[in-house]
Design goal:
GO molecular function, one term: peptidyl-prolyl cis-trans isomerase activity
Strand order of the largest sheet: 2-1-4-3
Low-confidence stretches: none
Keywords: Chaperone, Isomerase, Repeat, Rotamase, TPR repeat
Largest sheet: 4 strands, antiparallel
CATH superfamily of the domain at 87-198: Tetratricopeptide repeat domain
Distance between the termini: 98 Å
CATH architecture of the domain at 87-198: Alpha Horseshoe
Helix content: 55-70%
Protein name: peptidylprolyl isomerase
Pfam families: FKBP_C (PF00254), TPR_1 (PF00515), TPR_8 (PF13181)
Enzyme class: isomerase
CATH topology of the domain at 87-198: Serine Threonine Protein Phosphatase 5, Tetratricopeptide repeat
Mean pLDDT: 90
Strand content: 5-15%
Number of helices: 9
Shape: extended
């Protein structure tokens, strides 16, 4: 790949580089480049505009003098590529060996706060092993262990990325492998709490305590859920009370307006007086 990086109109990087897609960070290449390369054709040239999330994020890149949350522009040319092995081209032994490698790499990225890069690594484990069948007892145990770790770690990444629905989905899959997994229950509770699903979150934290009564964090989160539920209900009551008050005020104004019209009509009729025989006769000749 040939790439040139610009920030604020100043070029800060220009190089030819060879790397594995999803591991560009090892070569000081932002995750947005990895994402773009997945869609590019051999020989294609493109200009990419990267926001902070897909650039160098909050950390910036001091090596290049890039500040936190900077917007970047890259000119990228994909000169050539070698396609990675498809899942069906790998046997179970190779998948398990590669799963161990990418798990370690994902953990390294996570510890460095590079959550999008970590997601790519943990996602590889899922793509290789989730639909793997016909395993021996030993292989099945190893596969389930890698999958459980991958789903739990993906859930944590998505919590950090504030993608809470995806975090819940990964926890569900982890709990499908181990229904009493303490981390899976706790992380799902965290995600649901952040999605304002207080009752569901409280149920998850209560299940955590059933698994481990000594989990102080879960006890604390149950209190948070109860507090949030109370605040939410009180806010709803205030909203509905104001709504009904406005409806009542509107109805009162409409009633007052109607009464005023009726009174005006009565007054006009009274001032005009009752009809005489001459009036009725005149009306008849009109």
């Amino acid at each position: 790949v040939h790439l040139e990086g610009f920030c604020g109109g100043t070029r800060f990087d220009c190089k030819d580089v060879k790397f594995v897609v999803g591991e560009g960070e090892d070569h000081d290449i932002p995750i947005g480049i990895d994402k773009a390369l997945e869609k590019m054709q051999r020989g294609e040239h493109c200009i990419l505009y990267l926001g902070p999330r897909y650039g160098f994020g909050e950390a910036g890149k001091p090596k290049y003098g890039i500040q936190a949350n900077a917007e970047l522009v890259y000119e990228v040319t994909l000169k050539s590529f070698e396609k990675a092995k498809e899942s069906w081209e790998m046997d179970t032994k190779e998948k398990l060996e590669q799963a161990a490698i990418v798990k370690e790499k994902g953990t390294m990225y996570f510890k460095e706060g590079k959550y999008l890069q970590a997601v790519i690594q943990y996602g590889k484990i899922v793509s290789w092993l989730e639909m793997e069948y016909g395993l021996s007892e030993k292989e099945s145990k190893a596969s389930d262990s890698f999958l459980l770790a991958a789903f739990l770690n993906l859930a944590m990444c998505y919590l950090k990325l504030r993608e809470y629905a995806k975090a819940v989905e990964c926890c569900d899959k982890a709990l499908g492998l181990d229904q009493d997994n303490e981390k899976g229950l706790y992380r799902r509770g965290e995600a649901r709490l952040l999605m304002n699903e207080f009752e569901l979150a409280k149920c998850d934290f209560q299940k955590v305590l059933e698994v481990n009564p000594q989990n102080k964090a879960a006890k604390s989160q149950i209190s948070v859920c109860q507090k949030k539920t109370k605040e939410h209900n009180e806010r709803d009551r205030r909203i509905y009370a104001n709504m009904f008050a406005k409806f009542a005020e509107r109805d009162a104004k409409e009633a007052a307006s109607k009464t005023g019209v009726e009174k005006a009509a009565e007054k006009a009729a009274h001032e005009k007086g009752p009809k005489t025989a001459e009036d009725e006769e005149a009306e008849g000749h009109v």
